[in-house]
Design brief:
With about 675 residues, the protein is α/β, with parallel strands linked by helices. It is built from 22 helices and 22 strands. It is globular. The structure holds adenosine-5'-diphosphate and magnesium ion.
Length: about 675
């Protein structure tokens, strides 16, 4: 009996070799083949007259070939074939490179539909290597285009797909409960798979896609909700002691209004008896750490522990210092736990956490290890939340039953993504920066102006200030056509030339933790003038005396990331400057970088970033920790994101852990989607 977990080798024409090609694309079973969705479609249905197609436009035309030219050998390995065609009104030259076979198969006095970019001139229009549809072949007018690997053509995939649908189409397991499918007017599985691969027409494609997107988003939402647990209905430790005045009295400054509000919001949560689930959003430098410290203090007052988790060791150590400075004089013990500590140190810290002598634990994801147990964990604070995977966050929450949760983010999340990632978080926003800050002046320059930028940096160093220089890569990478500046090489050049008489340090992610610390400390204590580094400094690092930041290959970073980087300067009293260096001439790139020069509002930049780069790139390399979606798009499917969120909640209300028989296919679907998630 056919089973959709069968190997693709069950299909005609798929042997070892083709199976290996499929594996490269992540396809091994019939099931994964059916879920190998087209990247896009060629629509042969909207035919335009050749005369009306403008040069440069992608169009579909229907023409008849009246003459085929001879093969022209340009040089070894390059032959050009030309056919001359007309649609009755205007002539069109069809140019085909190298593909003798395809050219020979073209018949004269026969109509073809061509899809491609219109080239040539208004007098002599031309299409080069267009996609060609022969109406005699009785194929649909909307043809799928798959994301292929060499050796595998769309045609081969189509043939295999067709057979897979014929043999296995009746054995597809319906994932959606019937009632839900009807309520949402979604088509059957079989119809969806048929029409996503071989659309009857544009409408059928839309119906098919909607169903598959719905299914995928629903699976995602259910998975997230199940992992998050229905925390809201649980009871949580209710805090009694809420006297913040000793903490406030010891602070060297007054809290801003935004900081006060965020603390007030959190206190209300902590007293409610329900678990707090709050996001504190605020631009880089807005002082979110103070909010975290204040809460750590309150928890300790109530005999509860706080875990503070940072995405990098550097940041964890910096938090450690801040928390120690502010909390230890008030009698609250603060300790570090990170992956790079020795076994002995880790064991000691674990003991302290288990017997409750440590009140605040600051660390990296090492805080999540199974062997870390807390005596009375009351609050989990996650800094730069989006950098952790969903799974890691869920793990931490499991450490203490019914814990309060606070997440802090300097990357304001656009609404659609927030809905997906944070679901039901309450939000406190810190909008203003602590007084005395001047916005960072930002300039975009080309590499040819670098000497002037270095001169500018020297002037600042002469005035006793410091500078960061950020490069995107650690080592020279020759594969990239464009030269990217590596940290080591770059620092060496500076030492030999422009900044030879200054003290230059190097910092990057592949250094040992102890070395990183040493460099960071030296920079903090002004034993270094310039820090040449990768984006390891992106989050959190705080050196108020640094007033210039130069970013090489600025085009390689997203707007939000550049904004984060820029936030490392402008923390002291001096006017600070950020210099973006890019030789990219692409108008979109330059526009993007100019937007950054024009605004210092992190929220506006986040929205802009989402629009320009799409959600996939938004946080860089899957840093949002969500599973890879195969068909849904967070930019295009906003309406379905909201609908599936509602549907997921309703399903879980009826069956809190999807335990009913009819939900089992959904459960399997969730397991499949999350199989590789949370590993970022
Ligand atoms: P972020 O929100 O980026 O995490 P931090 O918490 O690191 O910001 O704070 C940035 C800097 O501002 C730190 O040096 C901190 O001591 C200082 N700071 C925080 N709150 C205030 C305040 N209310 N007044 C003056 N300086 C403050
Ligand atoms: Mg911070």
């Amino acid at each position: 009996m056919p089973d959709i977990t069968d190997s693709v080798q069950y299909l005609k024409g798929v042997g070892e070799k083709r199976a290996a090609l499929y594996r490269k694309l992540g396809v091994d079973s019939i099931c994964s083949l059916l879920r190998f969705f087209p990247r896009t479609y060629v629509d042969y249905s909207a035919v335009v007259p050749v005369a009306e197609a403008s040069i440069g436009e992608t169009v579909c035309v229907e023409v008849t070939i009246f003459r085929k030219g001879p093969e022209q050998r340009i040089r070894k390995g390059l032959s050009i074939f030309r056919a001359f065609a007309t649609d009755g009104s205007t002539d069109l030259t069809i140019t085909i490179y190298n593909n003798k076979f395809q050219f020979a198969a073209l018949k004269t006095d026969h109509p073809y539909r061509l899809y491609g970019v219109m080239k040539g001139t208004l007098l002599r229009k031309e299409m080069q290597s267009p996609q060609i549809l022969d109406p005699d072949q009785q194929m649909g007018q909307i043809q799928p285009v798959y994301p292929l690997t060499s050796g595998l053509t769309s045609r081969m995939v189509a043939v295999n797909m067709r057979q897979a649908l014929e043999l296995y189409g009746d054995h597809l397991e319906e994932v959606l409960p019937d009632a839900l499918r009807r309520q949402e007017h979604l088509c059957h599985m079989r119809y969806a798979y048929e029409n996503i691969h071989f659309p009857q027409d544009a409408h059928a494609l839309k119906v098919a896609r909607r169903r598959l997107v719905f299914e995928e988003l629903l699976t995602l939402q259910l998975g997230l909700l199940l992992m998050r647990g229905r925390v809201r209905e649980e009871n949580a430790i209710r805090l009694e002691q809420m006297d913040l005045s000793p903490f406030l009295a010891a602070l060297p400054f007054a809290l801003t209004e935004g900081q006060q509000q965020a603390i007030k919001d959190s206190i209300a949560d902590l007293q409610s008896g329900r678990p707090m689930n709050r996001l504190v959003q605020g631009d880089v430098g807005s002082g979110k750490t103070m909010v975290a410290c204040a809460l750590g203090y309150l928890l300790a007052q109530n005999g509860c522990q706080t875990a503070v988790m940072a995405p990098t060791e550097i940041l964890a150590r910096q938090h450690l210092e801040t928390f120690r400075r502010l909390l230890e004089p008030l009698g609250v013990s603060v300790e570090l736990l990170t992956g790079s500590m020795t076994q002995k140190q880790k064991r000691e810290r674990r003991e302290g956490l288990a017997n409750g002598t440590i009140s605040v634990a600051v660390g990296t994801h090492a805080l999540l290890s199974d062997d870390v147990a807390f005596a009375r964990l009351g609050l989990v604070i996650t800094d730069e939340q989006h950098r952790f995977g969903v799974r890691q966050r869920a793990d931490l929450a499991k450490k203490g039953l019914h814990v309060h949760k606070l997440v802090m983010s300097a990357t304001p999340i656009p609404r659609t993504l927030a809905l997906m990632i944070y679901g039901e978080l309450d939000v406190s926003s810190i909008r203003q920066l602590p007084g005395g800050r001047k916005p960072v002046e930002t300039y975009l320059i080309r590499g040819s102006k670098r000497a002037r930028a270095f001169h500018f940096i020297r002037e600042h160093i002469a005035r006793g200030l410091q500078a960061y220089i950020v490069c995107p890569l650690i080592e020279e990478n020759e594969e990239l056509e464009q030269k990217l500046y590596s940290v080591e090489e770059y620092a060496q050049k500076l030492r030999e030339s422009e900044l030879g008489d200054t003290r230059i340090g190097v910092l990057h992610g592949r250094m040992k933790a102890a070395d990183k610390d040493a460099v960071m400390q030296a920079f903090q204590q002004h034993q270094l003038d310039v820090l040449v580094c990768t984006t390891v400094i992106e989050v959190g690092v705080d050196v108020p005396n640094a007033a210039v930041m130069l970013i090489e290959n600025a085009e390689r970073f997203g707007l939000s990331q550049l904004h984060q980087l820029r936030g490392r300067v402008g923390r002291g009293t001096a006017q600070s400057t950020c210099i973006l260096v890019s030789d990219h001439s692409n108008p979109d790139t330059r526009k993007r970088l100019k937007i950054l020069a024009g605004t210092s509002d992190g929220f506006a930049l986040a929205e802009e970033d989402l629009k320009l780069r799409g959600p996939g790139d938004f946080f860089g390399n899957r840093q949002h920790g969500l599973p890879m979606l195969q068909i849904a798009s967070m930019a295009d499917d906003v309406e379905l994101i909201a609908r599936t969120q509602d549907a997921a909640r309703e399903l879980l209300e009826q069956a809190p852990s999807l335990e009913k028989l009819e939900h089992q296919p959904l459960r399997r679907s969730i397991d499949r989607l999350f199989a590789d998630a949370g590993t970022t």
